[in-house]
């Protein structure tokens, strides 16, 4: 405390006495007296500079306008040749150049600009640091004389450093002024201009006026909110959320520190209108920061408070403004914190361990299905991690899956469209990228467009990474092929949902229950060994747990024919060999499904098996008949083969095949190729995935001449130019549309009815993919069934252009809801009724229940089941049916069989009116052969019997409707994404089974928007037709009847492959309590039954049968058989 004396000012000592201060004494640690303070001079100087600058800018604008107007007047008077014009133009160019250079520096567009921004930020932070340091050693206003240097040398050094910083600020201010396009706005409203005007005079006036005022130097901290911008220029902050959060933190940080500086100034200075220092209080800067944090957080401990009126007014204003500011920042801070979880980090690869990135449509259902199949326990050698990339955080269901498979499954939030997110999941090192689609989407074209763009992005930046994509439409494949980086030879693959879905439903017309059989063959599930009260469920469950496996065959199989290999694998190893991939030194890889006996297995052949256990499949890789005869029934691994060790494979072959007459290496000094690729069956080989394929199968590999063509049949049988399907000249829509009256008069029988619920506004269903397998050329022409499409004619008119070259396809205008229309097309006498789920051309809305998505299909299906039809006469049912008079299945019926006691019932099965239960004078719709497409698995319970509802909790797999194949959902196709990753031939196998053939030539023609031309049968077409097909035969079929009485499935399997090269896949069995009915709904599928399973007289058998039977010798080479 100072007091007046004769000399002017006295200094208050520690013992309470005062000592006079001599004149001219100047100490930076002593605060000036109340009457000698000059703080208002600093503010006045800043105000004068600001007002003066505004006036200068306004005058400059007026002068510029006056000069511009004079120039325009001279231009009008003298033209553009005025000398002043050239002078002004040159001056203008110089000014523009200078402005552009200053703008480049200020905006950080070049390296010098980035350095300038970084230096400016660091200089401002250093200036604020000097201010904080001075608050601890200096009062708010004090005397300072640099020349006399009466203070500490450190104070002088700090002053010099501060002076250098503010000179830099002055130069930077001038640069910003030059770069500003609107000088008036820059000077009047820019906050950083105000900071410079309020702080620059403080330092320069200190050196001139010998008085220093800390004043508003703390305003330099406001530059802290530019920290994110500086870090962004330096590429430290690149992500949007991080940059946004940086701005929020910078503004909050600057607000608190600047407000603390104002409180420190006001409280340590006191109110200016109060004489003396009565209401001021000494507060350190740290105490002011603490006070502001407590105040803005609304805690208010009360240990510090403002004494001055100005301090209190400022607190009221800052609380109102600060609370509003914090309220707007809280959601941003919360979003930032919630987004920075473990799902936003970077995936860390493990040396020696591969990973796949799964993206696209990521939901609880898709994640669960993919993980269960990809990480199935039977994939014992799977050392691949799964990395999901999705835009949303995982749900509770997904989190539980991640916790269960924490060592192999990771989840990251992001999108494939952001390169930064792709780098986070290490996509450049991924073994594959799998893109899933929404199979329940309402707009399939838009869904495909999204996945196509994802493929393009992946192949654009990571062209070496394998890509597997799911698409809804087959037509969308053409857009994928337009991507130059897409190469099927590198493993890139397309899984087309509609092509597979409709193909499976089409094959169900030839083999009812095929959809269930295929799903049980390829979908990996666990056999939980549950026990059910119904015996049929126990039998059915044994086939649910079988899966598809592939492995290399041992050298024991070299030179063996495929049928013989099938027999050995079935009888010795309990394996169902369905396809093989053999290597030829000239032709490359040949993939064949159930080929003929002339195909010989080579070294390193890869086999595709159906089995209950992966351990059984591994035995085929080491099997030797001589060494392992007594070990095949054991669950343990086979011991090492001794006879093959250290010797060539020919040694084991000579001991294994008694009928093998010649060495497979050389014959009479010339090479002997066991597989002849010159026969007409291979003239039309196609290439897929870099491998040579034989278009599903060629049943003859021998060099032989095809039998003469039946020109009588050829005149009426025409095929597309690739020979894939039956063809007819294009028909007009008017010629194909049939009225209800005409349809009723036709009395359709043994036909296929397709019920289309879609209206004219709905997206296309792609009926071409449904009808083409029904017109596949690998079946006799006389076995083709009429196809009747019942639906809206306007909608079907859009589909007609894609199906008008298929023979015997008719459109009946009507409604699937109408019983009159259903009776007109004789739906009760149809071999199969296909009920398609419509696409809805609306934006997805949250339904009340999943059933609402299938409400139309459920209504039509229940309506069909509730219908009754007039019964055929009892005399027709009970009297023997002559073989020649059977309408549909006469070629598959034999009156001379071992089941004569059931002749009348089996005759009813063969009649085209077909498989319907009789009840008095009526036939119920419960027995209509029908396959219904559902969107959601859970909706199966609406179509299932009430007595089976207790199994609904176990999913669709154990319901009666699914077991008999009367319902189909796209969820059964979830396995293909992971199965294709492990072996791409699995996709080729499934496509061949469900579509009848894989023909890239035909796909190329359709992708061009063209239609294949029609041709008559020739040698090339005949070779293409010569491929096996899916069928379903009764036990009294001529193929089986000639074998004699067979009681067990194993005997039936072996004799079928030996005598007809026909591969049995499973049984279609009636329930025990329904032995008197022939209904489809009372049957169930038994996939790959055990060898000792007893056959029932009413069983039907799923088979892969040859187009033409091959009677070749199973034990001799192709050359030997020609001798």
Automatic annotation (TrEMBL):
- Segments for region (Disordered): 662-681
Residue ranges constituting the Calcium-activated potassium channel BK alpha subunit domain according to the UniProt record:
492-580
A GO cellular-component term linked to this record: monoatomic ion channel complex
InterPro entries found in the cross-reference section = K_chnl_BK_asu (IPR003929), K_chnl_dom (IPR013099), K_chnl_Slo-like (IPR047871), RCK_N (IPR003148), Slowpoke-like_C (IPR048735)
Where would you say this protein principally sits, based on its record? membrane
- Keyword Cell membrane on this protein? yes
Pfam families named in the record: BK_channel_a, Ion_trans_2, Slo-like_RCK, Slowpoke_C
Task: Describe the reaction catalysed, as an equation.
Answer: K(+)(in) = K(+)(out)
Bias type Polar residues, positions: 666-681
The entry's keywords = Calcium, Cell membrane, Ion channel, Ion transport, Magnesium, Membrane, Metal-binding, Potassium, Potassium channel, Potassium transport, Transmembrane, Transmembrane helix, Transport, Voltage-gated channel
Q: How does it sit in the membrane?
A: Multi-pass membrane protein
Organism listed in the record: Clytia hemisphaerica
Question: The RCK N-terminal domain covers which part of the protein?
Answer: 353-469, 749-873
- Location within or outside the cell: Cell membrane
GO MF term list = large conductance calcium-activated potassium channel activity; metal ion binding
Q: Which residues cross the membrane?
A: 39-68, 115-134, 154-175, 243-263, 283-301, 313-334
Per the database record, which ranges form the Ca2+-activated K+ channel Slowpoke-like C-terminal domain?
987-1105
Protein name as catalogued: BK channel
Tell me which residues make up the Potassium channel domain.
253-338
Q: Does the keyword Ion transport apply?
A: yes
């Amino acid at each position: 405390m100072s007091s007046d004396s004769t000399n002017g000012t006295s200094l208050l000592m520690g013992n309470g006495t005062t000592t006079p201060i001599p004149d001219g004494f100047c100490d930076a640690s002593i605060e000036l007296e109340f009457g000698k303070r000059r703080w208002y001079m600093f503010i006045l100087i800043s105000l004068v500079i600001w007002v003066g600058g505004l006036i200068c800018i306004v005058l400059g604008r007026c002068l510029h306008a006056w000069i511009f107007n004079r120039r325009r007047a001279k231009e009008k008077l003298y033209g553009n040749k005025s000398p002043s014009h050239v002078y002004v133009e040159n001056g203008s160019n110089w000014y523009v150049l200078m402005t552009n250079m200053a703008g480049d520096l200020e905006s950080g567009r070049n390296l010098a600009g980035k350095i300038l921004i970084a230096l400016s930020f660091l200089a401002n932070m250093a200036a604020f640091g000097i201010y904080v340091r001075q608050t601890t050693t200096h009062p708010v206003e004090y005397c300072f004389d640099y020349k006399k240097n009466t203070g500490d040398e450190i104070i002088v050094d700090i002053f010099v450093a501060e002076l250098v910083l503010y000179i830099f600020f002055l130069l930077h201010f001038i640069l910003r002024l030059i770069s500003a396009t609107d000088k008036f706005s820059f000077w009047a409203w820019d906050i950083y201009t105000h900071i410079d005007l309020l702080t620059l005079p403080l330092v320069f006036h200190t050196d001139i006026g010998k008085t220093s005022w800390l004043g508003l130097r703390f305003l330099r901290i406001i530059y802290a909110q530019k920290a994110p911008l500086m870090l962004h220029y330096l590429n430290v902050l690149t992500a949007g959320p991080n940059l946004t959060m940086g701005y929020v933190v910078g503004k909050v940080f600057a607000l608190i520190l600047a407000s603390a500086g104002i409180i420190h100034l006001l409280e340590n200075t006191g109110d200016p209108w109060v004489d003396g220092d009565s209401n001021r209080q000494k507060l350190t800067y740290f105490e002011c920061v603490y006070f502001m944090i407590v105040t803005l957080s609304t805690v208010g401990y009360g240990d510090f408070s403002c004494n001055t009126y100005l301090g209190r007014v400022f607190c009221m204003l800052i609380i109102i403004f600060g609370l509003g500011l914090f309220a707007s920042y809280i959601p941003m801070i919360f979003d930032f914190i919630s987004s920075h979880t473990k799902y936003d980090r970077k995936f860390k690869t493990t040396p020696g361990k591969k990973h796949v990135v799964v993206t696209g449509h990521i939901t609880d259902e898709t994640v669960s299905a993919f993980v269960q199949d990809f990480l199935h326990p039977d994939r014992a050698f799977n050392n691949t991690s799964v990395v999901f990339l999705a835009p949303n955080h995982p749900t509770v269901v997904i989190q539980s899956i991640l916790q269960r498979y924490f060592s192999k499954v990771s989840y990251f939030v992001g999108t494939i469209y952001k390169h930064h997110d792709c780098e986070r999941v290490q996509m450049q090192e991924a073994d594959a990228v799998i893109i899933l689609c929404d199979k329940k989407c309402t707009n399939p074209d838009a869904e495909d467009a999204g996945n196509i763009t994802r493929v393009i992005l992946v192949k654009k930046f990571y062209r070496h990474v394998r890509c597997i994509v799911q698409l809804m439409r087959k037509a969308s494949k053409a857009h994928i092929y337009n991507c130059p980086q897409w190469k099927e030879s590198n493993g890139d693959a397309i899984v087309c949902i509609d092509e597979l879905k409709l193909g499976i439903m089409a094959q169900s017309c030839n083999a009812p229950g095929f959809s269930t059989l295929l799903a049980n063959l390829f979908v990996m599930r666990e056999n939980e060994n549950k026990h059910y009260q119904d015996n049929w469920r126990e039998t059915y469950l044994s086939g649910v747990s079988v899966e598809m496996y592939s492995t290399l065959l041992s050298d024991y199989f070299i030179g063996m024919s495929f049928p013989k290999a099938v027999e050995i694998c079935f009888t010795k190893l309990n394996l169902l060999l369905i396809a093989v991939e053999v290597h030829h030194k000239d032709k490359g890889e040949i993939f064949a499904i159930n080929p003929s006996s002339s195909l010989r297995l080579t070294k390193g052949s890869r086999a595709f098996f159906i089995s209950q256990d992966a351990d059984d499949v591994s035995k085929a890789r080491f099997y030797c008949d001589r060494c392992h005869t007594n070990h095949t029934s054991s669950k343990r691994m086979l011991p090492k083969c001794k006879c093959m060790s250290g010797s060539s494979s020919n040694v084991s072959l000579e001991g294994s095949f008694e009928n093998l007459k010649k060495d497979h290496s050389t014959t009479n000094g010339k090479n002997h190729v066991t597989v002849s690729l010159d026969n007409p069956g291979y003239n039309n080989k196609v290439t897929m995935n870099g491998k040579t394929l034989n278009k599903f199968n060629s049943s003859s590999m021998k060099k032989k001449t095809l039998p003469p063509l039946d020109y009588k049949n050829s005149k009426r049988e025409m095929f597309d130019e690739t020979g894939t399907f039956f063809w007819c000249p294009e028909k007009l829509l008017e010629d194909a549309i049939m009225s209800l009256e005409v349809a009723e008069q036709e009395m359709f029988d043994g036909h296929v009815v397709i019920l289309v619920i879609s209206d004219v506004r709905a997206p296309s269903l792609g009926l071409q993919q449904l009808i083409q397998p029904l017109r596949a050329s690998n079946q006799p022409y006389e076995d083709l069934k009429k196809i009747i499409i019942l639906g809206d004619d306007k909608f079907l008119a859009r589909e007609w252009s894609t199906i008008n070259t298929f023979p015997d396809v008719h459109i009946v205008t009507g409604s699937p809801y109408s019983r009159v229309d259903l009776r007109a097309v004789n739906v009760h006498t149809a071999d199969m009724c296909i009920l398609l789920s419509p696409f809805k051309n609306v934006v997805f809305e949250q339904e009340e229940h999943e059933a609402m998505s299938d409400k139309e299909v459920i209504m039509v299906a229940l309506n069909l089941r509730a219908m009754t039809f007039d019964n055929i006469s009892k005399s027709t049912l009970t009297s023997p049916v002559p073989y020649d008079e059977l309408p549909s299945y006469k070629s598959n019926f034999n009156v001379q069989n071992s089941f004569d006691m059931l002749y009348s019932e089996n005759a009813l099965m063969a009649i085209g009116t077909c498989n319907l239960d009789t009840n008095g004078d009526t036939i119920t719709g419960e027995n209509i052969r029908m396959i219904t497409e559902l969107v959601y698995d859970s909706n199966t319970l609406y179509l299932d019997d009430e007595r089976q509802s207790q199994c609904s909790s176990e999913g669709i797999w154990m319901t009666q409707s699914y077991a008999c194949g009367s319902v189909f959902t796209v969820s059964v196709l979830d396995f293909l994404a992971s199965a294709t990753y492990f072996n791409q031939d699995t996709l080729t196998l499934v496509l061949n089974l469900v579509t009848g053939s894989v023909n890239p030539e035909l796909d190329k023609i359709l992708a061009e928007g063209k239609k294949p031309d029609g041709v008559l049968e020739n040698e090339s077409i005949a070779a293409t037709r010569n491929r096996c097909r899916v069928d379903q035969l009764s036990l009294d079929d001529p193929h089986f009847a000639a074998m004699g009485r067979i009681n067990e499935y194993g005997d039936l399997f072996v004799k079928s492959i030996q005598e007809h090269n026909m591969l049995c896949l499973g049984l279609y069995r009636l329930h025990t309590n329904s032995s008197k009915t022939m209904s489809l709904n009372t049957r169930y599928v038994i996939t790959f039954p055990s060898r000792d399973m007893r056959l029932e007289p009413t069983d039907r058998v799923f088979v892969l049968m040859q187009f033409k039977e091959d009677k070749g010798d199973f034990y001799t080479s192709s050359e030997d058989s020609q001798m």
